[in-house]
Design brief:
Elements lengths: L1 E9 L2 E9 L2 H8 L12 E5 L5 E5 L5 E4 L8 E7 L3 H12 L4 H14 L9 E8 L4 E2 L4 E2 L3 E7 L5 H4 L12 E3 L7 E4 L5
Helix pairs in contact: 2-3
Length: 194
C-alpha cells in the first residue's frame, strides 16, 4: 500500500494523516467510469502518484481527458471531458492549488476568457461526471455500488434565451442552463437518482 502524508491543523496543532493512494490500474478503472463506452479504451487519464502528486497516468489517443478520484477527498468523484476544455480545466486546477476559492477562480477565469488569455472551446464541449458516497466506494479495489452519472455540455456565454432552456432545474432529468451568460455557461443533465 502507498500513502500520502497530509498535514492538517487541528486546534492549532499540526496532525499528520496518512491517505492511501490506489494503484494506477484502480485509478484508471474508476476514472473511466465517467467515460462513454466507445471512448474508454483510448482516453487520457490524469491521477495521482504514490506521493499524491497530480500526473498523467495514461496518455490518450482520442478526444477525451479523464480525471481519477482525489484520494484526499471522501467518496468517489471522477470525470471525463472533451480535450478542448483542457485549458479551462487546467487553469482551474492551477488556481485551486494556489488556494483560491471557487468564486475567485470563477472571476479570474471570466476575466482571462474575456481578455483572450484563456481560450474556451468555440463549439459545445462535453463533461461527464460519476460519483458515489464513501460508503458505496472501495477506493483500493475500485468497486462501486449505486454510483450516479450526470452530463454537462459547455456552451460559453449561452443564455436561457439563446438556448430555450430554463435557468434552473424545472423537472427531474430535464436539461437546464447553469451560469448563463458567462464563460462557464453549461447545460446540466441530471437524471433522476435511483
Amino acid at each position: 500500500m502507498k500513502y500520502i502524508l497530509m498535514l492538517v491543523m487541528v486546534g492549532g496543532v499540526c496532525v499528520a494523516l496518512a491517505q492511501t493512494v490506489p494503484s494506477v490500474e484502480v485509478q484508471i478503472k474508476t476514472a473511466l467510469l465517467a467515460a462513454p463506452e466507445e471512448s474508454k479504451e483510448k482516453a487520457m487519464v490524469y491521477g495521482y502518484s504514490p506521493k499524491g502528486e497530480f500526473m498523467v497516468l495514461r496518455k490518450g489517443e482520442n478526444e477525451l481527458v479523464c480525471l481519477a478520484d482525489d484520494p484526499a477527498q471522501p467518496g468517489l468523484n471522477v470525470s471525463c471531458y472533451h480535450k478542448s476544455l483542457e485549458p479551462f480545466m487546467a487553469r482551474g486546477r492551477e488556481q485551486k492549488k494556489e488556494g483560491k476559492t471557487f468564486q475567485e477562480i470563477f472571476d479570474l477565469r471570466e476575466q482571462e476568457v474575456k481578455s483572450g488569455k484563456l481560450q474556451m472551446p468555440k463549439q459545445p464541449a462535453s463533461l461527464f461526471v460519476y460519483t458515489a458516497p464513501a460508503e458505496n466506494f472501495n477506493a483500493m479495489t475500485g468497486e462501486v455500488t449505486n454510483g450516479y452519472s450526470r452530463s454537462v455540455i459547455y456552451i460559453p456565454y449561452a443564455t436561457a434565451e439563446s438556448t430555450g432552456l430554463p435557468a434552473k432545474p424545472a423537472a427531474p432529468g430535464m436539461p437546464w442552463i447553469m451560469n448563463p451568460g458567462t464563460h462557464r455557461a453549461h447545460i446540466m443533465i441530471d437524471p433522476p437518482r435511483k
